[in-house]
Amino acid sequence: MRAVIQERYGSAADLRIGELPDPVPADGEVLVRVKAVSLNGSDRENLAGSPAYSRIGGLRRPRHPVPGSDIAGVVAAVGAGVSEFRPGDEVFGELAGYRGGLAEYVATPPKLLSRKPSGLSFAEAAAIPQAGCIAYRATRGVRPGDKVLVNGAGGAGGAFVVALAKHCGAEVTAVDAAAKGSYLLSIGADAVIGYESEDWADRRDAYDLVIDLVAQRPPHRVHRALRPHGSYLMVGGHARILLATLVAGAPIGWAVRKRVRVLAVPQSREDLEAVTALVVEGSAAPVIDRVFPLEEAPAAFAKLAAGDHRGKFVVEVA
Ligand SMILES: NC(=O)c1ccc[n+]([C@@H]2O[C@H](COP(=O)([O-])OP(=O)(O)OC[C@H]3O[C@@H](n4cnc5c(N)ncnc54)[C@H](OP(=O)(O)O)[C@@H]3O)[C@@H](O)[C@H]2O)c1
């Protein structure tokens, strides 16, 4: 089968399109003929091997040579013991371990896969899983009138976070490069901050919830922007900030009567189906910036690393 192959950590120049043996589904697995894969910030991190958490399970080189985690496709075969899917079923979801998607076929346990709604294209379905599930968890508990700030809103995951916060009735401030300002307003943000000219953390008592997709500030720097009883959620960012927030976030938050913590987002079929129901009813929509053919996947990764995307890049495999 044709696949994107990554043998070492590095840059898009370390990716090539090549041939790999077709996978065979083991007992309890399904074989999916992949149609579309969407790229996330985590795919950029898994290519670079940075932050450190992206090397879990593959310290020196990627444990799986094929990148790509959010897939949509058609079940081609099922292993022994699989009863919930049959060949021909259209499915989408995340791959365990965040790798293996950018290939004509992938074998995976079916527990993270869902049936693709007929009204969504394969590209649209592939654009939902990771971004949608982050947004679903991060915005749980948002109430009408809450002031929510989304840091790093212009990338792969931000559009879903902005959309679900708006769906909950929040007033949303989106932070990203100033050049993405008009895009952020177009996806529903009420206000934008260009990170080059203003540090949102210098604001005082401004937000009920800060959702940080690109955390760079230690926990003692983020709580002052929160209103009384507000929450700061670190979703992604530097490994040292992750560690500092895990260790010091709770005591700092407790001292100031706010919450400062890391949001762990499990790979979950239930969350995927809940957020997809919101997409189907029209409360949120995947934002696809551009669709690339498989041969141009390395170029898509190069543009992802450069921050050239507004929403999702999708790679069409077949
Ligand atoms: N917590 C969990 O359980 C969990 C689960 C899955 C994924 N994740 C993480 O969640 C994150 C998701 O990010 P994503 O997919 O949306 O990433 P992304 O596509 O890379 O988007 C990040 C956005 O942030 C912008 N940005 C860069 N520097 C910034 C700064 N200093 N201030 C504000 N914005 C800045 C980027 O724009 P420019 O590059 O143009 O500046 C880009 O638009 C990843 O780190 C991933 O590992 C966490």
TrEMBL record:
Q: Which InterPro entries match?
A: ADH-like_N, Chloroplast_QOR, ER, GroES-like_sf, NAD(P)-bd_dom_sf
Q: Which Gene3D superfamilies match?
A: Medium-chain alcohol dehydrogenases, catalytic domain, NAD(P)-binding Rossmann-like Domain
Question: Which SUPFAM superfamilies does this entry report, sorted A to Z?
Answer: GroES-like (SSF50129), NAD(P)-binding Rossmann-fold domains (SSF51735)
What region holds the Enoyl reductase (ER) domain?
10-315
A Pfam match is: ADH_N
What protein am I looking at?
Answer: NAD(P)-dependent alcohol dehydrogenase
Source species of the chain: Glycomyces niveus
